[in-house]
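Researcher: Let's do a round of design. I'm pasting the structure tokens now; please hold your answer until I've finished.
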């Protein structure tokens, strides 16, 4: 169980993350209304795959669209959980580190014409669960998501960087959480379907 101070920080982080992904009325009900009671937090051992697309490389819209369709297909095939992510990037969470690495490799092969950097990290990740409009959503927060982006940033264009702890990770799924935290796999796949299209970035519709 999180302390009051820890929970307040997580609520702030969740609010900041979804503020521009939800219509104002939905955000207000979640953080200032009765739907706030549905918010739960959990820590799990997960493997995160961060994809960063270099828009300066000049891939055509058709090529990029085809790549993101392939991303959706591979994510589904390997049982990942796609999370909306701004600035021409995407984040997928996996309970199985081997599946995460396999998807990263297949994405690298599928990225013809797309300037892509991929980072793969494993470790304890904070998940936020909440219900909006009667549907369960889950999104990762905190240092692990930032670390995944940083690791991807160290990759050469077209390359993958895999953190050492990903190899041999045993995938202990649940570390700590509220007693009534929902199951990770029961959550909906795409937070962006609740929100307005972002002015920048890429929405991934699963």
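Researcher: That's everything. Go ahead.
Model: Designed sequence:
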């Amino acid at each position: 169980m999180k302390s009051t101070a820890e929970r307040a920080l997580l609520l702030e982080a969740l609010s900041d993350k979804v503020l521009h992904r939800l219509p104002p009325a939905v955000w207000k009900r979640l953080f200032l209304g009765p739907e706030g009671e549905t918010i739960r937090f959990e820590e799990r051992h997960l493997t995160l795959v961060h994809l960063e697309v270099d828009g300066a490389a000049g891939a055509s819209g058709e090529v990029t669209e085809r790549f993101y369709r392939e991303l959706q297909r591979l994510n589904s095939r390997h049982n990942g959980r796609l999370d909306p992510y701004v600035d021409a990037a995407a984040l997928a969470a996996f309970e199985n580190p081997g599946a995460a690495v396999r998807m990263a490799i297949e994405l690298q092969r599928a990225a013809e014409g797309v300037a892509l950097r991929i980072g793969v990290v494993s470790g304890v990740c904070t998940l936020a669960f909440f219900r909006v409009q009667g549907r369960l959503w889950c999104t990762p927060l905190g240092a692990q998501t930032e670390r995944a982006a940083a690791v991807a940033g160290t990759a050469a264009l077209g390359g993958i960087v895999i953190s050492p702890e990903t190899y041999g990770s045993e995938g202990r799924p649940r570390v700590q959480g509220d007693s009534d935290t929902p199951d990770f796999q029961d959550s909906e796949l795409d937070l962006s379907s609740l929100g307005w299209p972002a002015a920048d970035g890429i929405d991934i519709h699963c």
